[in-house]
């Protein structure tokens, strides 16, 4: 059935579900994204208009802020006072593969560690329902999260164009875009529309072992071949090039003497899951601040005079 070409098992009633193209060639199927919440049932995604309810409590476990920044003065803009509280943010996650970082972020959101909700998943792989496709998108379908195909290409003519993607994310009222193993270059239209609101994770300590062609196991093989004693994930803001945006957070992982690329990858990935959840929590709590020189810092919640 045409209406199940992307989301097998999703309801296709045209009075309930909508797409960003005509009904004869839909790109994805999801409830109208005007402030809806999702609940999952077997072979069905239902939705309801949210009612006012107490905000979910969220974990007190946060980034370990050990570096005090002295004499920053007026060079930092703090934005909203954290004591005044912030509302829940809406997140769009971009994936190309298994999406383990996406899963960890989504699970953290559900348990209250992140003050935000994943409202849409974007993938560049249509065939996510097969073992050769995108496991992250299959997970999203199982959890009732709408899935969007991007970009449009010769192989994927039904994908969204950059301008259509921006419109789609606006309809979902997305606050932040989280790249979690998305291998395509982000178009300039999206970067301009979501200025300082798109972050990516890379499995090395940038700027080392980054740039076009450095992804997945290629990164870890290069790290080992270089003789580097340390590696680890880097989370950075996204600009128009691969892996050149401002660094937001890093975590160090040792490279052991007899490491294989697979062993190092597993160790770095474990740290990715921890770090990405903590940084996403900081984004949603509006604890990212910018120095005058354009360097982003993470303000510690427990002690606002400390930064990560």
Automatic annotation (TrEMBL):
Q: Which key words are in the record?
A: Chloroplast, Plastid, Purine biosynthesis, Transferase, Transit peptide
Its GO CC terms? Answer: chloroplast; cytoplasm
Which Enzyme Commission number(s) are on file for it? 2.1.2.2
GO function terms (MF aspect) = phosphoribosylglycinamide formyltransferase activity
Where is it mostly found? plastid
Pathway assignment reads: Purine metabolism; IMP biosynthesis via de novo pathway; N(2)-formyl-N(1)-(5-phospho-D-ribosyl)glycinamide from N(1)-(5-phospho-D-ribosyl)glycinamide (10-formyl THF route): step 1/1
**What's a GO biological-process term for it?**
'de novo' IMP biosynthetic process
Q: What class of enzyme is it?
A: transferase
PANTHER family attached to this UniProt entry: PHOSPHORIBOSYLGLYCINAMIDE FORMYLTRANSFERASE (PTHR43369)
Protein name listed in UniProt? Phosphoribosylglycinamide formyltransferase, chloroplastic
